[in-house]
Amino acid sequence: MCDHSGRGKPMDGERHHPLQCILPPHILENIIRNGSDTQRAWALENLHSSGQFRGQRQMQEAVWTLTPTGTKRRTVYDAAGATTLPGKLVRSENDPPSKDVAINEAFDGSGAVYDFYLAKFKRNSVDDKGMRLDSTVHYDHKYDNAFWNGQQMVYGDGDGSLFNRFTISVDVIGHELTHGVTQYEASLSYQGESGALNESMSDVFGSMVKQFVNKQKATKADWLIGQGLLTKKVHGVALRSMSAPGTAYDDPVLGKDPQPDNMKKYVKGTQDNGGVHINSSIPNRAFYLAATTLSPTGYSWDKAGAIWYEVLCNRLRPNSGFADCRDLTIQVAKDLYGAAEQKLVRKAWKMVGL
């Protein structure tokens, strides 16, 4: 589990902010509650590893703030089961593929994210200034998570019982690197509705990355986040479903997918920084509805993606909530395309109770 403290408002790569992980804390809590002794030990070890990493942050900032920027440049490091970052350099730009599938997936996945943002939004890497994309694979032992730490990607290998390696899904890579985009743009506070918007933006653009790689039109995509992460032993298809929240998994160990599909079912409470991973499904579904109606024969980035990107980069503020995002996307739809598109975006939000 990662630190979801919500401290700080990261405006650049040097400021402290919570580790932003793909695996929601409620899943790890259910594993500790329902899993076997071995599975519980893995989940508890994840907690310990995250604590160790937080202690390394200052040292890593001193090193990585010196990284030059420019065109697409990817580096992959191997932690070899340890928790010291970044690890041993194992692949750089223009190197041949490795015999290690996780190294290649991290390398190719970060390249796909870079290519997507450049091709569709003319964005030059995470910070729009050519930031080098660093990744570390084989972090810790049987580590069940992947996270963006403010400067690089980190991937666990999964425990092999419940989760496969965390480099396996390109939308997970897109999700986590989009946390970096949000860090440099809207800097959405990681708490309550603004935190859920932060998570939703990562799902939205992570899903578009997968659709970009697979050349899928909006109505043909599966709209699943993390498909391939769950092993065959788990009763489920992914971590989340953007089109049908609450249906991604229903498993004796992981529990049942708790995500709501409507504002009427908004989950209140203090856990997970006010439910940032749970309630993100509400704006997620609004985007899915907007994308499939705005581009019924086209791609999600054609109109809906362009609207959401403009809102993320130029309209949202750190403490913006769901209603703010609704109003801004409705306005931008009109500004970019016209009244008909504005009506469809308004309808999408209304269908999720906003």
TrEMBL record:
Pfam families: Peptidase_M4 (PF01447), Peptidase_M4_C (PF02868), PLN_propep (PF16485). Its cofactor is Zn(2+). Residues 22-47 form the Protealysin N-terminal propeptide domain. Residues 72-183 form the Peptidase M4 domain. It is found in: Secreted. Its main location: secreted. GO terms for molecular function: metal ion binding; metalloendopeptidase activity. InterPro entries: Metalloprotease_M4, Peptidase_M4, Peptidase_M4/M1_CTD_sf, Peptidase_M4_C_domain, Peptidase_M4_domain, Protealysin_N_PP. The keyword Cell cycle does not apply. The active site is at residues 176, 277. Keywords: Hydrolase, Metal-binding, Metalloprotease, Protease, Secreted, Zinc. Residues 186-353 form the Peptidase M4 C-terminal domain. Its EC number is 3.4.24.-. Extracellular zinc metalloprotease. PANTHER family: NEUTRAL METALLOPROTEINASE, PTHR43579. Belongs to the peptidase M4 family. This is Neutral metalloproteinase. It comes from Pseudolysobacter antarcticus. The lineage of its organism: Bacteria, Pseudomonadati, Pseudomonadota, Gammaproteobacteria, Lysobacterales.
